Amino acid sequence: MEERNRKKILDILRVLHESERPMGGTRIAQALNLAGREMSQRTIRYYLESTDQEGLTEPVGRRGRRLTTKGLQELNNASALEKVGFVSARVDALTYRMRFKLRQATGGVVVNLSGVEASRISEAATIMQRVYDAGLSMGQRLLVARPGSRVGRWRVNDDECAVATICSVSVNGVLLSQGIPTSNIFGGLLEMNDHRPTRFTEIIKYEGTSLDPLEIFIKSRMTSVYRAARTGDGLVGASFREIPAPAAEQARLLSARMQKIGIGGIVLVGRPGQPLLGVPVPTDRVGLVVIGGLNPLAAVEEAGISTTNHAMGALMPFQALHPFQEILNKFRK
Amino acid sequence: MEERNRKKILDILRVLHESERPMGGTRIAQALNLAGREMSQRTIRYYLESTDQEGLTEPVGRRGRRLTTKGLQELNNASALEKVGFVSARVDALTYRMRFKLRQATGGVVVNLSGVEASRISEAATIMQRVYDAGLSMGQRLLVARPGSRVGRWRVNDDECAVATICSVSVNGVLLSQGIPTSNIFGGLLEMNDHRPTRFTEIIKYEGTSLDPLEIFIKSRMTSVYRAARTGDGLVGASFREIPAPAAEQARLLSARMQKIGIGGIVLVGRPGQPLLGVPVPTDRVGLVVIGGLNPLAAVEEAGISTTNHAMGALMPFQALHPFQEILNKFRK
């Protein structure tokens, strides 16, 4: 794909990706115009012919196109610059689609999808249990699927177990369902001393990276979640967010309710305009520290058991997840 | 150290760290005032007593204090927030101190300090040679020191060899010596296709992180430098910088001269206000892509040989480094 056409093609692929149904040239043109990326229908048709040929799109029925798996890959491979801010954008999109009902404790939650070597799953289950016991996880529920089974649209590899943990982004979804918008500021390593959070030792701002900060901290083996779970001292994944100052009281109440139904995760709620763990916050805002959903997997990785992790991998019904004691006991020897 | 005193103590430690000689209360007060962090001499003396007691500072001669190793550690452990932008600041400080003489090819250069398992150094040397041969290194010179020897102020561990590679920040130093100031924008993974740079696949902006981006990419095993060296296709560490537009022509000439004396590293120089590899650049600026100095070590890490890497570890005389063929041949079997 030539560089000068590439941007336009990616714009078209993105529109198809965002749509739930196949789209024709007219609707694609409308969507692009609304997004301030005007393109004539003729130009769009020209590009669609070439994306069909390259296998990035395929015709469905009367003049509609949809994205192929290859097209999706092409989008995902889009240059890093196009992915900066992508993490925040993805958070917002998933948050909006969650539609979680707090009262009934039902509805979608955002989950992380991880793979763990099947041969070491019982060891991994013991480790994860410790992290859940110590309250360093996002909520109290998860799902573990055996090799070859299916988790949503994802088929689990034959040599690994799949683990779905609640993603901390679900906190944003619950807050939004109560009318509170959340801004994601950074992901970092949170130092725990004597079971209490003290400070962030490393941070990566969401707006300055094409990668999920917590995935990176796990991959580069910078966490010490297992030690934090066992002794109270260690470095765990966490993130810093902001909400409007008038929502602070409600957020505190919601935090308690979320804890109760097992979707927990808010570690600290600050005061209006006041620094939280030394992190400055604008006047009309309040800081939140939210625990990282991948912490149980970080502890597994620390033990030398290899994992693959995809933060914000999917939406899943909360009811499909079960209390950790129940699930993990089945996999422990 | 209590949180409310901590900031002030760190301010004092920082002033002592920046000074080349021990300082008394009066000079510390002056320095703090100039930095907009006014503190009375009485307050300073009060804190200095406690930092002496904690072993963070020590008295030298008549009422002067200097930082101890423990004090330096305390500074380095400062919370992540204090370290954001630290990478850029450290680059600028080292660049200023370089004083490299291009004509004579002498003077200080900024180096990365790495450790490599001593038992696998010959294997590592073979791998690094391939990376240097392929031109994916920063310049053509390095230093390898045997276990137990000294590299500058650093004593090499008994079970590892030390490797000093030219840090890409040295490019900034050479440009500055010719009156060209450089801004560091981001570190990233640069995709090489058929031996040519095509795009950045991941980026981390310097202003949004407390970590060196390239150290992180290596640690999390996201590079494929060895493959890029062997086949021409792969992901290598690189960074994106900007210089004033009128300096573009001179930068191109300097790039060629640097290449010639073995301090190379500028991969691409853009055009005024024009995107470079798809990265937009402000009107009066020109983009630069500079190769990552740690690429040879990334390739070693990719082979499963464990390394420790400190980007911008020290300043070292350029003459202390030698052509890679000469050095690496000694360590190959």
Q: What is the total domain count of chain A?
A: 2
**Mass-distribution shape of chain A:** globular
CATH homologous superfamily descriptor of the largest domain in chain A:
mj0159-like
Order of helices and strands of chain A: HHHEEHHHEHEEEEHEEHHEHEEHEEH
The second-level CATH architecture of the largest domain in chain A is: 2-Layer Sandwich
The major β-sheet of chain A equals:
5 strands, antiparallel
Question: Could you list the spans of chain A in which at least 5 consecutive residues all have pLDDT below 50?
Answer: none
CATH class assignment of the largest domain in chain A = Alpha Beta
Radius of gyration of chain A: 21 Å
Keywords:
13 helices; Arc Repressor Mutant, subunit A; Alpha-Beta Plaits; 39% helix; homodimer; alpha+beta; 333 residues
List the helices and strands and how they pair.
The structure is a homodimer of 333-residue chains.
Chain A: H1 3-18, H2 25-34, H3 41-53, E1 57-60, E2 64-67, H4 69-76, H5 80-83, H6 86-98, E3 108-117, H7 121-133, E4 141-145, E5 150-151, E6 154-155, E7 160-166, H8 169-177, E8 183-193, E9 196-205, H9 213-219, H10 225-231, E10 234-244, H11 248-261, E11 266-269, E12 285-291, H12 295-302, E13 307-317, E14 322-323, H13 324-331
Protein architecture, described:
2 copies of one chain form a homodimer. Chain A has 333 residues and is α+β, with helices and mostly antiparallel strands. Chain A has 2 domains: 3-78, Arc Repressor Mutant, subunit A (Orthogonal Bundle), CATH 1.10.10.10; 108-331, mj0159-like (Alpha-Beta Plaits, 2-Layer Sandwich), CATH 3.30.70.1360. Chain A has 13 helices and 14 strands. Chain A has helices spanning 3-18, 25-34, 41-53, 69-76, 80-83, 86-98, 121-133, 169-177, 213-219, 225-231, 248-261, 295-302, 324-331, and strands spanning 57-60, 64-67, 108-117, 141-145, 150-151, 154-155, 160-166, 183-193, 196-205, 234-244, 266-269, 285-291, 307-317, 322-323. Chain A has a 5-stranded antiparallel beta sheet with strand order 13-3-7-4-14. In chain A, strands 9-8-10-12-11 form a 5-stranded antiparallel beta sheet. In chain A, strands 1-2 form a two-stranded antiparallel sheet. In chain A, helix 1 (3-18) packs across helix 4 (69-76) and helix 7 (121-133) runs antiparallel to helix 13 (324-331). The longest helix of chain A is centred in the N-terminal third of the chain and has 16 residues, at 3-18. Chain A is globular, with a radius of gyration of 21 Å. Chain A binds chain B through residues 3, 77, 79-81, 83-84, 186, 188-189, 199-205, 207-211, 216, 219-222, 277-280, and chain B through 3, 77, 79-81, 83-84, 186, 188-189, 199-205, 207-211, 216, 219-222, 277-280.
